[in-house]
Design goal:
- By secondary structure, this protein is an alpha/beta fold.
- It has a single domain, classed as Vaccinia Virus protein VP39 (Rossmann fold, 3-Layer(aba) Sandwich).
- Helix content is about 40%, strand content about 20%.
- Strands 1, 2, 3, 4, 5, 6, 7 and 8 form an 8-stranded mixed sheet that branches.
- Helix 2 packs parallel to helix 3.
- Belongs to the class I-like SAM-binding methyltransferase superfamily. Cx-SAM synthase family.
Amino acid sequence: MRSKKPTPAPQMTDRLFATERNPEDFRFDASVARVFPDMIRRSVPGYTTIIPMIEVITEQYVQPGSHCYDLGCSLGASTLAMRHGIPHTDCTLVGVDNSSAMIERCEHYVALDDHELPVTLRCEDILTTELSRASVTTLNFTLQFVPPEKRKDLLARIADATLPGGVLILSEKIRFESDSEQNTQTQLHHEFKRANGYSDLEISQKRAAIENIMIPETLNTHKQRLLDTGFNQVLVWYQCFNFVSMLAIKNS
């Protein structure tokens, strides 16, 4: 008797900050996991472009017999994009997240995905998870939640584990050198959120919740650190307002 595929998790609308609430830091808990697909689609300009392009980039750079990692995999959007970009059956694909609520739902989406390549999910800290023989690694809006003083060590570990010819896909919210540009890009991002149905109260409360735990850096800071930690070329392949995605390449 053939087993039935799991029923898809219901897609819930993000209303977490729609009413006034006591200020507290943002957490990737069960309440966030339930609305995360809607939250990130309405909050991150270009997210629906970045995800399918991760598949394209993965297909270009993945190497036979290598490991691929999605660090901070949340519900597995990047993981599944990588999965569909890997043509080699001898590759290993690993998704890592320290939120058990995210991993639980990610397992569900992986099970629903019609693809033969196995996916290993780890509920653990990306700062200490084991990395080796990597050809493609993704940090998709993850590094910004890592304490700034620990970012260089994490990127050095990724670079050390990356095979010659391998890459890191790094997507981040950035800040700008110029206060004027920072203000303009922030305002445009807020208008993007309003166009997607978020109220001023939701925008304000979400901003207050994440400002102490999501610390953006300048594009130059990201590029120089990637070069300092062992990558040889860094290029921006996508940008919309204050959101960018970079490709860090390790020479063959």
